[in-house]
Amino acid sequence: VGFRLDGRNSLALDLGTVFSLGVSVSGSDGVTTIGEGATPTLLSSSLDYVLELPSGPGGHTYLTAGAGWYHILTSYGLFNNGSGYSGTFEADSVGGTLGVGQVFDLGGGVGLDVSVKGRYAYFDKLKTRKITSTGPPVAEDDYYLATTDPLFPGSLFPLTAADIDSSGGLAGYASVDMSGIAAKVALIFSL
Predict the structure, then answer these.
(1) pLDDT tens column, 1-37
(2) CB contact at 8 A, 65 and 96
(3) What is the largest CA-CA distance in the chain?
(4) Of the candidates 34, 46, 62, 88, which lies 20 to 30 Å from 153 by C-alpha distance?
């Protein structure tokens, strides 16, 4: 949805979802077998400023800059010696975008929009209230996705803030960086 301010300046509401490939880790030391997976999904809403640059009759170039709110949902699962644990960890962040694009006039009210946009979206404390367990029951509490366990470096575990704070530096809050670059090719139809 966009609002033209004048001949060259516009504001646009940008709503979107970014799906990413999950990450999985597994390993065994002969006694302990562990497997885990995490898949983040980003929900975004931003207000973008669009500046159309002077150009010829074949189309126009534009620049965008935006600021917005981002929400991340990370599906997480852990298998540890026969017991399974899972949950959806969430966090919110404020971020921004910068982009450039070109609209090519194809004639007959049809245009081709080609653009690239960079996004900054960083999350440092992903939290859930509920962990589902196939093994021993897990008490309802605020659980954070945490980095820990020197046996399996890079592994993630659901821990409470008290567990992380009392770990003596062995555990820390996991972070997810959903910053990236997106390319777009779209047909535009003028009425």
Answers:
(1) 788 999 899 999 999 888 887 777 777 777 777 788 8
(2) yes
(3) 70
(4) 88
Cα distance between the two ends of the chain: 15
Q: Where does residue 151 fall: left (phi above 0), alpha (psi -120 to 50 degrees), or beta otherwise?
A: alpha
Concatenate the DSSP letters of all residues of 58-92 into one string: TEEEEEEEEEEEEEEEEEEEEEETTEEEEEEEEEE
Asked if 181 and 119 touch (Cβ cutoff 8 Å), the reply is yes
Cβ atoms of 109 and 189 within 8 Å: the answer is: yes
Q: pTM for this structure?
A: 0.81
Residue 127 DSSP code: E
Span 39-92, pLDDT tens digits: 899 999 999 999 999 888 888 999 999 999 999 999 998 887 778 889 999 999
